[in-house]
Design brief:
Structural class: alpha/beta
Shape: elongated
Radius of gyration: 22 Å
Bound molecules: zinc ion
Helix content: 40-55%
CATH superfamily of the largest domain: P-loop containing nucleotide triphosphate hydrolases
Distance between the termini: 61 Å
Oligomer: single chain
CATH architecture of the largest domain: 3-Layer(aba) Sandwich
């Protein structure tokens, strides 16, 4: 766990601090920066940041924390002590819990609640960042809920997750949600999503492997399944725009315009099925089989030529 607290003797170098804001400053995230700037004068106590990559979500969260604590105009200046310390995660009133290594435990939430019961160390806004908050166990999430519900002036919680569906509905219902720009085809992908996409591309070519992977109990959650379908949509968009894409885009390239329309319908039906809470593994298997049939027909056609 990393309760980063202040080391007032030490100011990080500008380069060190600014690196943390790189992803947030990308033109891709301009829309979300504008939205956060509007919220900064009266920020909601609980804000969920979804979309983007894990690194982008953390960077945007730190940028928002700087926005809330920087006294320069326009804020954040990314040069004052507050901005630099936040960038280096050594700011007095910034607490970062990161679930990227697996889980956020109830003990960590208890420690956090104890600290929040004490007076803030500085005069700005306290910011608690729960990165990859989908790693909160049910117990930890319930303990956190208590903190979210206690109104405290000058305290902001930022919950970061790939998609809001991966958080407990009780957390989401108490929160504002902002969505970062989704990653673009090719660069998207956490390793896991990339490996699912590669597996799907291989299945569409060979007809093997996919069902073994989805049949592992608990292998597919609704959130990642939605991400996968969104990634297939992006691969298809890349093909239709004549951009080069990943292995999956290569498999979809020979499809006719009519077949692409068919694929588009299939993907839309998947999203509807997720909304209707159909088992995500079933949805993905259905999609993979339908896509396989289309790709198979394409290969037969090219063989007959
Ligand atoms: Zn500043």
């Amino acid at each position: 766990m990393s309760f980063k607290t202040a080391d007032e003797e030490r100011l990080p170098s500008r380069e060190e601090a600014l690196a943390a804001y790189d992803a947030a400053l990308s033109p891709r995230q301009e829309r979300v920066r504008t939205a956060l700037s509007r919220l900064a004068s009266d920020p909601p106590q609980v804000l969920i940041l979804e979309g983007g990559t894990a690194a982008e979500r953390l960077s945007v969260a730190l940028w928002h924390a700087a926005c809330l604590n920087c006294t320069s105009e326009p804020s954040p200046c990314l040069a004052c002590p507050s901005c630099l310390q936040i960038g280096a995660s050594i700011f007095n009133d910034l607490y970062v819990l990161n679930g990227s290594s697996g889980s956020i435990k109830i003990e960590e939430i208890r420690d956090l609640r104890r600290i929040l019961g004490e007076a803030p160390r500085g005069t700005g806004k306290r910011v608690v960042i729960l990165a990859e908050a989908q790693a909160l166990g049910v117990e930890a999430a319930n303990a956190l809920l208590k903190s979210l519900e206690e109104p405290r002036p000058n305290l902001c919680f930022l919950l970061l997750a790939p998609q809001r569906e991966r958080l407990l509905p009780t957390l989401v219902s108490r929160s504002w949600v902002l969505t970062l720009a989704w990653p673009q085809a090719g660069e998207e992908a956490g390793d896991e999503l990339r490996s699912w996409l590669d597996e799907l591309a291989a299945f569409l070519t060979t007809g093997r492997g996919w069902l073994e992977r989805t049949s592992v109990r608990g292998a597919v959650d609704a959130g990642p399944a939605r991400e996968l379908v969104a990634a297939v949509q992006r691969a298809q968009s890349a093909v239709l725009a004549n951009r080069t894409g990943n292995a999956l885009a290569a498999v979809l390239t020979p499809l006719s315009a009519r077949e692409h329309l068919h694929v588009r319908d299939l993907l839309a039906q998947c999203q509807e099925s997720f909304d209707a809470m159909v088992n995500p593994a079933l949805v993905l298997n259905w999609l993979a089989t339908q896509l396989y049939e289309i790709c198979h027909a394409v290969r037969d056609r090219s063989r007959c030529r």
